[in-house]
Amino acid sequence: MSLDEEDTSHSLSQKASHAVNDASQLNEEQLSKYEVWKTQPGMAQIKLQYIDFDHEVRLKVEHLSETDKKLVDEANTEANDTVEPKKKKFKGQNRKHLEINARSSSNYNDHRLCFFVIRGGLENCPYQSKCKHEHDLASYLSRRPADLSSNCYMFDTYGKCAFGIICRFGQSHIDPLTGKNLVVPRPNQTYVESLNKYPPMLKHLLRRKKYNYTLSDRLVRIANKQITKANVAKRNNPSAGEAETTNEQHHDEHDVGEKEDRSLVDIYYSALQTNTNQNQAETNENQQQKEADGNDDEQEQQTSRPVPYRTLGTITDADMIRLKPREKVRIDFNRRLYLAPLTTVGNLPFRRICKEYGCEITCGEMAMTTSLLQGQQSEFALLRRHPSETIFGVQLCGSFVDTMTRTVQMLEENFDFDFIDINCACPIDLVYKKGAGCAITRRTIDFERICRSISCISTHPITIKLRTGILTSENNAHEIISLAKSWKSEHDENHVVDLFTLHGRSKEMRYSKNADWNYVNQCAQVANPIPLYGVGDIYSFEDYYQRLNETSVSGCMIARGALIKPWLFTEIQEQRTWDISASERFDMLKRYTNYGLEHWGSDQAGVEKTRRFLLEWISFLYRYIPVGLLERLPHRLNERPPYFFGRNDLETLMASKLCSDWVKLTELLLGKVAPEFQFLPKHKANAYG
């Protein structure tokens, strides 16, 4: 941020353009409106002095797509005609979201500079004669665009910027004559890279389909065979299943003996161990046969001069002896502050902000298993983890047992995480029609195969995210939970699933209705002793502790509440309502911007990515109503406010619903946008009833 931009934000926080309303100077119409709003259900109660009675709805088209601009022109033309105008609506405004945002950022990397020149100078490029990129630093310096700011966050914090001459804040660390990147070590600050970077060798193997999935494929075959056999036996003799259930209840109540039959999980482990031992025995026999076929000269040569070998590290038996459920590392999920996995907006910089406010458990964005197995780099970016994330999980979404199991094997062998979350709650039609997300709960046999196979191949806890059901009138989460609860080893008390998280809405409801916490409580009682976290409408510390104390849940997962007010975690820990100022919220945006530049880069492409994700977050942040403006606390998440203005201009700007005002906020942090810049929010779900 430049000095001029800092002065602008400071002046906005000190200036109030709107005069506070005086009840004695308001007319009867305005007072009657205010009384109606106070009693109208679903309306947030704003103090009289901050309500904007003179607000005019203005449609700014500067950041709209060309199609929507044409619709506006047609509507204005028809309004001037004598004929009654046709009603036209903006339908599918976000349908071409990716195309529009990609079009506005098509010139991210127009510098055409060689990667080696950017990092270390011309002499470091090993392909100078064949390299297709530019190596002339003097030419680039002559046309290099002006910096967005004189201060580079990476250089000021760590003493080195990895983007060198193409950094958009490079004035402080670039030699203006030679273009060399300056390095000034900071003794008190050590740069810690984020974890789970995409290994180049893994990319090579995945894209050429040469990754070894022998273990997961063998496990899937065993799972399909054993579960099919068990289902056939249960179908042919249903009374046996009822008798077994009765015996289990008798065993739990009176602790009588131990059952002789083993669960399917134990059968998997035994079968895997048997197959592994057989493969090892065959390998040893083949090796002995080759040695026996050798001549005497070779044997003497081997005896006199043994073949040297190299050790590559500690040799373990993890590939031969899998961990059983009771041997896995357990996580205490009781009453932890859990940030929900959030598509697009739940990125690494946002999770860092939430960790600073007191969040304890974080989870990456939903990753599609098919995209991971294809080696798509954008999908692997969702697995990145910051070192400050002490308990971090990866969320997987898929519809087939083979792809899910293969993905888990690949992640176990190459990435660092603490638990695996299976997404059975995604309501997006594109995912649902592929049989993933919510749809997988309708295929209970496939769902069982997926969970059992993943549990066997993974050394980490398994969690499942659910919704109440597909249709509002047909809740089936309690049936899924009861089924998953029965998947356990009968020789110990450990289950296949370690945690359930239940969103109190169906796929059909989306977000406009209140979450059904009565049904969440019912499911928590069914899940006992497996912990269950409830999700939905947690927007204050009163909401959080009310759900904990009045239901049987083990904790609450926070989603939209954290997007609108990330300091909610601090409010819950300290059990107070925080009337956070506009300056403090703007400082939070400044920290997010710095974390974004550190994560996505400080070159032009990184700046525009940071700007885009910041705008996506602001599309939720603007819904926050400052505590000092409310007449009644706590404010509910689905309460719609009347038009209001803040206590200063910065607070008013941050509460604006106009996309153009969101862009102004980013310009205070990342400089001016290009004239052709366009932005449409990806998430535009209706949050009000």
Automatic annotation (TrEMBL):
Catalysis: reaction(s): a 5,6-dihydrouridine in mRNA + NAD(+) = a uridine in mRNA + NADH + H(+); 5,6-dihydrouridine(47) in tRNA + NAD(+) = uridine(47) in tRNA + NADH + H(+); 5,6-dihydrouridine(47) in tRNA + NADP(+) = uridine(47) in tRNA + NADPH + H(+); a 5,6-dihydrouridine in mRNA + NADP(+) = a uridine in mRNA + NADPH + H(+)
Q: Which cofactors?
A: FMN
Region of interest: Disordered: 1-24, 230-259, 274-309
Which domain of life does this protein belong to?
Answer: Eukaryota
Residues covered by the C3H1-type domain: 108-138
Write down the EC number.
1.3.1.-
A matching Pfam family: Dus
GO BP: any one term: mRNA processing
Q: Which InterPro entries match?
A: Aldolase_TIM (IPR013785), DUS-like_FMN-bd (IPR035587), Znf_CCCH (IPR000571)
Name of the protein this chain belongs to: tRNA-dihydrouridine(47) synthase [NAD(P)(+)]
Function comment: Catalyzes the synthesis of dihydrouridine, a modified base, in various RNAs, such as tRNAs, mRNAs and some long non-coding RNAs (lncRNAs). Mainly modifies the uridine in position 47 (U47) in the D-loop of most cytoplasmic tRNAs. Also able to mediate the formation of dihydrouridine in some mRNAs, thereby regulating their translation.
Similarity comment text for this entry: Belongs to the dus family. Dus3 subfamily.
Biased composition regions of type Polar residues, renumbered to the chain: 10-24, 230-239
Return one GO MF term. zinc ion binding
Which class of enzymes does this protein belong to? Answer: oxidoreductase
Where are the annotated C3H1-type zinc-finger regions? Answer: 108-138
Report keywords, A-Z. Answer: Flavoprotein, FMN, Metal-binding, mRNA processing, NAD, NADP, Oxidoreductase, Repeat, tRNA processing, Zinc, Zinc-finger
Q: Where is there biased composition of kind Low complexity?
A: 274-287
- Which residue windows does the record flag with biased composition (Basic and acidic residues)? 247-259
